[in-house]
Amino acid sequence: MRFSITHPLAAGDCDEAFLRPDNLRRFARAVEDAGFDSLAFTDHPAPSHKWLEAGGHPALDPFVALGYMAAATDRLRLMPNIVVLPYRNPFLTAKGGATVDLLSGGRFTLAVGTGYLKSEFRALGVDFDERNALVDEALEVIRGIWTTDDYSYDGAHFSARGVTSHPRPVQQPHPPIWIGGNGGRARQRVCDHGSGWNPFPAPAWLAQTSRTLPMETLDDLARGLDDLWARLDAAGRTRADVDVAFTNPAGGNPASIDFDVDAHLDGLERLAALGVTWVGVSVPGADFDAALDVAARYGDLVISP
After folding, report:
1. How far apart are alpha carbons 85 and 66 in whole angstroms?
2. How far apart are CA 31 and CA 73, in angstroms?
């Protein structure tokens, strides 16, 4: 089992101290020292004020932030959580990912999703109803330009002829690609293009807002994994080809004094038995020093054992 933290800015009500350049470096090093395996940043270039006021969250540009973190860390994998693929021309996404991979010495993972905020699609000039087709197109282009010189592709809104993009990523044949989303289409994309599935816990109300399928229990996750395994078998791939990331609510909030370590460890065992290989962990965003303490405590109580 490996462990990931998404920068607490994703929590919404985040202490401004988290955004000071020196503290960004301190946070990354503290997470690495605690034994975590990756650090992630979300992707919201143009969210609506209404969404932010209703519980959304601000975001840094993930590629810029991850490039900055590459210089502050030695071991952490660096990933967006997640890049909304339709928002950008896929050649730009590929260039950003290749650059972070180079600057980090081969520690970049591209985690992607379809997106759901109609207002953000409008602000960026992207047709919301085209989003799934644009995701499939982008996955083909990113893998193509990462591995091929003199590359050509006719997209829905661009025509590329004889493109070569160097420097290439350090990782060969290319960085891992994780697919976010709870539905069958996301799992098929894992089989076709990816090396990781990144579903997220979603009660019915959140699933409706996020335009995905509910995933409320481990039974829901198990059904999704059964479907993923079957699709991998049909594609001639093995389970070992694919990472699976999820969260572990067992034992409660790691920031709480009532955090039950034994229950949490039992929860990790249940997830591992299902095939989960990565667990996302949250630290509080209201207080910078408290977040560092929680990360260190989680490392001592959970990761190190």
Report:
1. 17
2. 9
What residues contact residue 280 under an 8 Å CB cut-off, 6+ apart? 3, 4, 5, 6, 81, 245, 246, 247
Give the tokens for residue 206.
């959140």
Question: Three-state secondary structure along 81-118?
Answer: CCEEHHHCCHHHHHHHHHHHHHHCCCCECEEEECCCCH
Asked if 303 contacts 32 with a C-beta cutoff of 8 angstroms, the reply is: no
Q: At what angle do helices 261-274 and 218-234 cross, to 10 degrees?
A: 30
Q: What is the pLDDT along the chain (305 residues), one digit of tens a residue?
A: 999 999 999 887 788 899 999 999 999 999 999 999 999 999 999 999 999 998 888 999 999 999 999 999 999 999 999 999 999 999 999 999 999 999 999 999 999 999 999 999 999 999 999 999 999 999 999 999 999 999 999 999 999 999 999 999 999 999 999 999 999 999 999 999 999 999 988 666 655 665 677 788 899 999 999 999 999 999 999 999 999 999 999 999 999 999 999 999 999 999 999 999 999 999 989 999 999 999 999 999 999 98
Query: What residues pair up with 196 in beta bridges, in sequence order?
Result: 178, 243
> Could you count the other beta carbons within 10 Å of the beta carbon of residue 124?
15
Q: Which residue is associated with the tokens 């697919």?
A: 179
Tell which residue, 61, 63, 24, has the closest CA to residue 46: 61
Asked whether the beta carbons of 200 and 249 are under 8 A apart, the reply is no
CA distance 50 to 42: 18
Q: How far apart are the first and last CA of the chain?
A: 12
Number of Cβ within 10 Å of residue 54's Cβ equals 9
- Please check whether residue 79 is in contact with residue 110, taking contact to mean a CB–CB distance below 8 angstroms: yes
- Residue 203, exposed/middle/buried by CB under 10 A (0-12, 13-18, 19+)? exposed
